[in-house]
Amino acid sequence: MSNFAKTFSSSLGKKLIMAATGLFLCTFLIVHLVGNLQLFKDDAGQAFNAYAYFMTHFTPIKVVSYLLYASIIIHAVYALVITMGNKKARPIGYAVQAGSQNSPWTSRNMGILGTVLLVFIVIHMSNFWWKYHNAELPYAKYEISLDDPSDITVSELPWDAKRLVHSDYVDTQAGKQVIVSKDLYKVVAHSFKTGWYVLLYVISMAALAFHLIHGFRSAFQTVGWDNRKYVPIIRFFGVWIFGVLIPVLFAAMPVYFYFFK
Amino acid sequence: MKLDAKIPEGPLAQKWSKHKFNLKLVNPANKRKYTVIVVGTGLAGASAAASLAELGYNVKAFCFQDSPRRAHSIAAQGGINAAKNYQNDGDSVHRLFYDTIKGGDYRAREGNVYRLAEVSVNIIDQCVAQGVPFAREYGGLLDNRSFGGSQVSRTFYARGQTGQQLLLGAYSALNRQINLGKVKMYTRHEMMDVVTVDGEAKGIVTRDLINGAIETHAAHAVLLCTGGYGNVFYLSTNAMGCNVTAAWKAHKRGAYFANPCFTQIHPTCIPVTGDHQSKLTLMSESLRNDGRVWAPKTVELAQKLRRGELKVTDLKEEDRDYFLERKYPAFGNLVPRDVASRNAKEMVDEGRGVGASGIAVYLDFAEAIGRLGEDTVRAKYGNLFDMYQQITDENPYKQPMRIYPAVHYTMGGLWVDYNLQTTVKGLYCLGEANFSDHGANRLGASALMQGLADGYFVIPYTLGDYLANIGPKAVDTSHPAFEETKRSVVERINKLLSLKGTKTANEYHRELGHIMWEYCGMARTEEGLIKAKGLIQALRADFWQNARVSGINEEFNQNLENAGRIADFLELGELMVDDALDRKESCGGHFRLESQTDEGEALRDDDNYAYAAAWEYKGDNQPEQLHKEELVFENVKLSQRSYK
Amino acid sequence: MNLTLKVWRQKNADTKGNFVTYKADHVSPDMSFLEMLDVVNEDLVKKGDDPIHFDHDCREGICGSCSLHINGRPHGPKQGIATCQLHMRSFKNNDTVVIEPWRAEAFPVIKDLATNRSAFDRIQVAGGFVSVNTGGVPDANVIPIPKVIADEAFNSATCIGCGACVAACKNASAMLFVSAKVSQMALLPQGQPERYRRVQAMVAQMDAEGFGSCTNTGACEAECPKEISITNIARMNRDYFTAKLFKEEEV
């Protein structure tokens, strides 16, 4: 085996992969959240649809997105490999094991939390990502007054295979900016009006919260970044940013649509 | 046989270097043709095995524990002495030599002790190079503390774990040689007997403790590094597994046993709480650096304390008797162990003992906490305090600890000459298992020093001389002596397993312990010893009639292991009593009530007893024959020890 | 007090084991846990039964022999102590106490509660040493070592090799043990020449022994009788990745 293969097949190497992919996914969450916050904008989804277009058509982002899909798969596969190895390391279990006395619940249940997240990601992506790429979605046409940007008129255009996914031009005669976008916003708004779907989101975001409360800090521990001066900062980020703020904001979206739209 | 200690001629300070030059060497190319067996992997065994393997010999190392790292050297807490004089307080090799000889009450050999002091400095260098994390000053240099029996600070330490850290150092050196294939390690193997061919040790018989397999191993020389026999007292600070079996079997094969009655009672142990107790826990003697030992001034006060009518913290300063400081103003609480122990016993015998049982005195840190602050005290002794609290459920930061002496170390052991060879050629004995360096009393922090000195710096030289003389002829187990010895081992095991009486071996052990403690403990009398001899003989006879041993040989059988070891203790106990009877003087840890000064101190009789008593085995239930090795003192003046 | 014990009994490595219930009556609170078992064993021997086998030796928490999983926790309910330092005052009258051996593929049961922990020895044989021969070393004070470094190395070195970290870990990982050993040497100047060889060799052996992977639960740290910190694990990881990814050292 080459040095690299040996390194990444060792127990520490596998953990490094988990940490690296995990941290990468964490950074993606921030980007994803910033984009999704557009949903709260009261512009009939114009900004959100523009964001969706940008994310799927800007080349560097596309490259990163494939890295992202790979990360999710590697993170899950390695988790499975490590878990199977760990099961093999203790073929006969304890009759009594008081794990709650010596370790936090989250740290012992990363597999379950991760599985919830994986199921969520599959549903989430098939619902939005797959539809956006493949389904025959209608288009939203936004006419924004150049004099008053808050004056937006929206109309729906039917699916047309020849139409561009996104176009943006200024109609100087009408004094309007005309934007036509594939209307993912509508799909989102529709989904978020479905009760079970909202529930799924909230549960999954709770799982995300617990997964990250342990996972974020744990990744730094794995790569060996445990300088006493910085550990409190990492812990703060792990708990309050990744464990609370991000999941809460994500969960707020479906809840907001369900109750207030 | 006349005992020849083989002490080199010449001035004291040159004996060892001259001797090293005169010893024969083994050609480097020939070293790999020799096999050496090392039994025991404590400080002496691990360091010897590693050092010999480094030289190129093939080593087979054996231990009964599941890992060599668990040998009982691990439990030493306080430190290791070395005449480094890093503190610029007047230490020197000669002073360490002198302190050790004096501390041992002039019953050790000058030559051996001087060598010990000489190599002590190398030990520290060696251990530091191995990565032993000794305590350091802020400047990055090694820290020292003072210890009982000396007025200089020469004790190196690693918090309360010096023994573990030193053993891990030796163990790592051993591991390196296992890695290199020079040492073959046998764990969970107990040595059952020594095989001698024409009077020379040529191998051993072992029992695999997991499956009971009786195996024979051949070698050019056998090193016994099997520790002390303090467990003969049942309750001691020794580990449960510590035993005399290896040394005792060697004794029966012709190795003389020297000064068996010299046992050390350590003054600062946690008192006994009840009959269920299986062992005693020692707290490092270093506690006496800052702790003050006291007992209530009067019997009445002690009684009130025992009944709980008075709290110890309520006792006024003038009602406390700091008896060590009072009686020994020069050394105070830092008098040698035997003196401190005996004084505690005196307090208890006078009725001034404390604790529910009345068998304890106080060790008080109130003054130190006031002087240094609780944090400093915690940094220095925290782990010991925690340990005390764990066992007694009392907080030593708030109230004085209760302490009482307990059996801790045995100065006696197999007789060895200057080369550490026993009276059986090719059979060597190192560390606590031999008798050589501590005389009648060992100073604190000297056991680690001796074990490592023997293993790292003495045996690699002296063993070479013997090996060069016998030549590198291959050895194997084909000689009939191996089969014969193995047969006798199997017979004894079968005999033990056939015992289906009513009492467990442990019960015999406890009884033996009571007898030894009562009559051959801190104070001994002729009358008591004679009585003890009879009791032990009766107990031994009863053991072979009424003991009960469970299970079979071909399995992991702790009951059988234990019974075998106790059977040997039952024989050793009688020899200890014989030795104590023979030595009518008091010296060091051996205190005969008949021989004391007007002030109640041990009174030596140098005219009649300045010898090491080496006992020769004469057959089962036969009196052993005494051989005397006269001790010659050319460099120190024998004086009544005084720590006043 | 009176207790009910449920003890794992297993004749040897090749047979299957099961729990057997024993009564321990008139237990004194001052007894240590092992002394309580001694008393049970004395009765068993007298009855002609096989006593419960368990490893133990120093009985003062330093040799690392004792290794009982008591009511779901290695070394029992208290922190910072080994089983031999556990006293019966930690239990209440009529308690049921479940006693199991360490459970790990790398620590096979030998008999009853005794397991084979020689995997730890082999990991240290693989590289847990400084390659110096006896003699010929410099004076001990030649290399000053900052007190904080010496103290930290000592903290790592306090490991008694009992295996509670493996027993506590839900993955039966030995990372705390290995990292403590690696750290001690990595911190000290004496350990520098072989620093990166050592960590690679020891980790490779750890993996070969069949221990699980660390998932940073911290259970090892919480159950370690010497309270060794998982900082050591981070330190080992750092050294390992440095060795593997940035240094050119064989192994």
UniProtKB/TrEMBL annotation, chain A:
ATP-binding recorded as keyword: no
SUPFAM superfamilies, per the entry: Fumarate reductase respiratory complex transmembrane subunits (SSF81343)
Keyword line: Membrane, Transmembrane, Transmembrane helix
Transmembrane portions of the chain: 16-35, 63-82, 110-130, 194-213, 233-259
GO cellular component terms attached to this protein's record: membrane
Organism: Daejeonella lutea
Protein name stated in the entry: Succinate dehydrogenase / fumarate reductase cytochrome b subunit
UniProtKB/TrEMBL annotation, chain B:
Family: Belongs to the FAD-dependent oxidoreductase 2 family. FRD/SDH subfamily.
A molecular-function term among this protein's GO annotations: succinate dehydrogenase (quinone) activity
Keyword NADP: no
UniProt KW keywords: Cell membrane, Electron transport, FAD, Flavoprotein, Membrane, Oxidoreductase, Transport
Ranges where the Fumarate reductase/succinate dehydrogenase flavoprotein-like C-terminal domain occurs: 509-643
Membrane topology of the entry: Peripheral membrane protein
Record domain FAD-dependent oxidoreductase 2 FAD-binding: where: 36-448
Entry protein name: succinate dehydrogenase
Native source species: Daejeonella lutea
Coiled-coil parts of chain: none
Entry-linked InterPro entries: FAD-dep_OxRdtase_2_FAD-bd, FAD/NAD-bd_sf, Fum_R/Succ_DH_flav-like_C_sf, Fum_Rdtase/Succ_DH_flav-like_C, SdhA/FrdA/AprA, Succ_DH/Fum_Rdt_flav_su, Succ_DH/fumarate_Rdtase_cat_sf
Gene3D superfamilies in alphabetical order: FAD/NAD(P)-binding domain, Fumarate reductase/succinate dehydrogenase flavoprotein-like, C-terminal domain, Succinate dehydrogenase/fumarate reductase flavoprotein, catalytic domain
TrEMBL record, chain C:
Gene3D superfamilies xrefs: 3.10.20.30, Alpha-helical ferredoxin (1.10.1060.10)
Domain of life from the UniProt record: Bacteria
Swiss-Prot/TrEMBL GO biological process terms: aerobic respiration; respiratory electron transport chain
Cofactor(s) the record lists: [3Fe-4S] cluster; [2Fe-2S] cluster
Coiled-coil zones: none
SUPFAM superfamilies, sorted: 2Fe-2S ferredoxin-like (SSF54292), alpha-helical ferredoxin (SSF46548)
Limits of the 4Fe-4S ferredoxin-type domain: 150-180
GO MF entry, a single one: 2 iron, 2 sulfur cluster binding
Any Pfam family hit: Fer2_3
Homology family: Belongs to the succinate dehydrogenase/fumarate reductase iron-sulfur protein family.
Name of the featured protein: Succinate dehydrogenase / fumarate reductase iron-sulfur subunit
